[in-house]
Records
---
Amino acid sequence: MKSHEPAISRAASSRVLGVVAAFVFQVLAIADGELRKLLRDPTEVLTRSIQPILWLLVFGQVFTRVRAIPTGALRYLDFMAPGVLAQSVLFTAIFYGIAIIWERDLGILHKMLVSPAYRSALVLGKAASAGVRGLTQTAIIYAVTLLLGVRVRLAALPMFGVLVAVLLGSAVFSTFSLAIACIVKTRERFMGIGQVLTMPLFFASNAIYPIEMMPGWLQVIARGNPLTYLVDALRALMVEGGRSAFGLGLDLGVQLITLTILVVIAGRLYPSVVR
């Protein structure tokens, strides 16, 4: 029996590696298809950049002069810039779920669901493509903040950290969006729920003011809001003098755990959208 144990172990390892390789291939295939859509219509990225740019140009410039919000050693514009980037990630990703409703109506989703692909790979592939969309928003926000004189960190390591945080944040909110789309199943209901969710998520975070300024009940909500941890990570990584209130490990850990939970939930809900 002992002579057969190494062979059995190798066979089991090969099966595991095969499953992992198939899963990764499926994720990349779905992401590639989604990114091809973006390349055919890049105007979507530009139009979604207008709102965060206006926040920086108008709201940020005004409140920097007023100095009504205590931001410590940071100018208000510097304090706000990471929050605006997080807002851009949120607003781009939260409506991502409408894509599967369109795919259902066009019959594309039915073809995906009868394929041998893992449901979680379908969800994670879409999350990965949403992350790339978030990176395009990051490039635009960085360009605007530099023009406005925000003291942005341009060293390689902090910028890499920003990219990781944006990828995770985009994946979290796009997967959340997919789960909602699987439940509501119609474009009209989805758009209504998406519009209801975006502002509460944004304002119940530390994006444009410190958590310490909030009333106690809102602080509790803010600490349970994934956007708060995305903003906290970006603030520590993106601007000179920025500090993380929770620690980068916790910020990224919360994003990763939230993403894992949402991928499992969305993967289970995914087939229900065609019913």
---
Amino acid sequence: MFPFRTILFPTDLSANSRAALKYAAAFAQNGNGRVVLFNVQNSKVPANLMSLPDEVLHEQNNQWLLPLKAEAQNFLADPYFENVEVEAAIVDGEPPAEIARATIEHQIDLVTVVARGRKGLSRAFGVSISEEIIAESNCAVLAIRPPQRDFVDWHNGQAEFRLRRILLATNFRPSSVAATSLATQLANHVGAELHAVYVIGDYFQQISAMFPEGGLATLTKLRGYVEERMAHLARSDGSRARTHVVEGRPYEEIVQIAARTDIDLIVIGTAVHNSLFGGTPVLGSEIERVIRNAPCPVLCVPAARVLTPLPAFVTQAVPT
């Protein structure tokens, strides 16, 4: 049903991260796939920690690894994993970079993260860390921020998806192509209502006020262009897509529509930007605010970097 077979579940091994475990197990079970439970530490960890006998760790004076191993084993024994293939990988390094590397090494289709908590993955999962993971990921990332609307139920060890309404946030730029394809495919697979929203930024109104002649004409053309593209999107989805063209602050309008129409999942394309101070790439501020304020999980789809066995994603490089 879903184009996700191999799921990466980054965890700090705290109770808070179990919200993402639930989704990872559900998608893996539905796709007859597997879950890679992934933990990053800031101290050297043996590559074969999970298979090392406890006696060896005692002999190596690595007693601090014993509770870490026990916590990982406790997560592996979670009831949600009862009918799911799951393995654990514990590494050392910086969480965003190691997780990005793991998506390639394990051929990951989806990452599930919790976007709340204290900073530092080896201690707890912070919002800033989860956003760095989304920015650096080579595949789709499902961001969960409890408490939110939940679209996964479990009955007798079986996952049940309750995706009734999906909201696609689009700007018709190349960065939203992959997200549009995936949102449409997911809606068709589960029979969900597909809602598409385009937000005309409030800065256009400011331009119109400052430059009435040119600004108003530009705003009028943009409105016409957006309405035309939205109509085409609705027709291409078999006339089932419901479209929303609004004006204001993008993240506020997206969050408000999601809350007002009881959306179960927001799908949004991500295009990363270079940090103002150099270093790691960052998400746009509007996407960050959508993730932090959404009433439901947010599926972040990177622009054309995702590979999947189903034709839901663009597999060729798209300019941003």
